Structures are given as C-alpha cells and as structure tokens.
Amino acid sequence: QDLQIPANLPPLTAPDIRMKAQLGFQSLRTRRGSMNTHNAAVHWNEDLILVAGEPLEDQLILLVEDRTGKDPMLLGHAVIPVAAIEQRLDERHVPSKWLPLEGGSGGGGVGPYSGRVHLRMCLEGGYHVLDEAAHLCSDYRPTAKQLWKPPIG
Fold first, then answer.
1. With a cut of 70, which residues of the chain have pLDDT below it?
2. Pick from 30, 61, 130, 135: CA 20 to 30 A from residue 51's CA?
3. pTM for this one?
4. How many other CB atoms sit within 10 Å of the CB of residue 138?
5. Is 135 helix (H, G, I), strand (E, B) or coil?
6. Would you give the distance in Å from CA 13 to the centre of its chain?
7. Topology (CATH level 3) of domain 17-147
8. pLDDT of residue 131
C-alpha cells in the first residue's frame, strides 16, 4: 500500500494502522499492521469473513484507520458493491486487485489521494446459511445453483 500516513506522530512511534470492514450490521477489524522496512508499506495478511445474503444489494465498506492517538484517524476508505465481487464455487485461486482509497481526514499529502490497498476478495457460494432451526429446515440445497442435484422425474 502507499497510504498517506500523517507526519505528526511522536518521535520513534510506529503508526498503529488497522483496516476495518463493514457489511450491514457486521464489522471486523484487523490486528495492527506490520511495517515493511524497505518501503514503509503496511501489510496485514489476514482473512476477514463476513456473511452476505441474497439479493446482494449491500455495500462492503473498507476503512483504513490510524489508531496511534486517542481518537482513530481515518486515512482512507473504499465502498464496494457486494454484487460486484467475484463469486467462487471451487478452490481456485482468487486474483488480487488494487483498490484506490478515497479521502481520509488525516493524510499528510495535499489533495484527494489517500493511497490504495491490495486485496483479495470473493463470495464463496457453496454455503447455505440457515435462518431457521436446523431440525425444522425446509430447504437443504446449497446456495449455488450449480451444486444442486437434478430433479427426479
């Protein structure tokens, strides 16, 4: 990532940069990012798993925050429609992509550029999340229609 990290940190203080993902009422946060000594890039290498239901009308909101001080400072954010995320039905490799971050409140640079993050995102469609008691369930089919058994008759 080439995040715009604020320059007003106390001396010898490593920034506490975390990413937060929000989908509907769900919210997950990464641990403190590790700094690369060669180019000052922050990396997390964590999996954040959120549950999305059909129809896929929600938006995934990614926030990059600096939590070094008392109050978290937003470095940038990205909004991704869940319907635009690639769906994966097998164990193939998910391609990664760079997402530009939109304006944060505390970037050190001038202008709207806040940096970018390198992510790997996918919707795994082979699961069925039950919204009723398992012993009273009326639908045991997987979510992905490609995995349905053919009808009898």
1. 1-14, 35-40, 43, 104-114, 126-132, 134, 138
2. 135
3. 0.69
4. 5
5. helix
6. 26
7. Immunoglobulin-like (2.60.40)
8. 67
- Residue 84: strand, helix, or coil: helix
Beta strands in 55-126 (DSSP E): 59-66, 73-81, 87-88, 97-100, 116-119, 123-124
Q: What is the spatial distance between Cα 151 and Cα 153, in angstroms, rounded to a whole number?
A: 6
Here the tokens at position 86 are: 């690639």
Which are the contacts of 153, defined by CB distance < 8 A and separation ≥ 6?
none
Here the tokens at position 143 are 């979510």
Report d(CA 114, CA 117) in Å as an integer: 10
Question: Domain map of the chain by residue range?
Answer: 17-147
Strand duo 42-43 + 17-23: pairing: unpaired
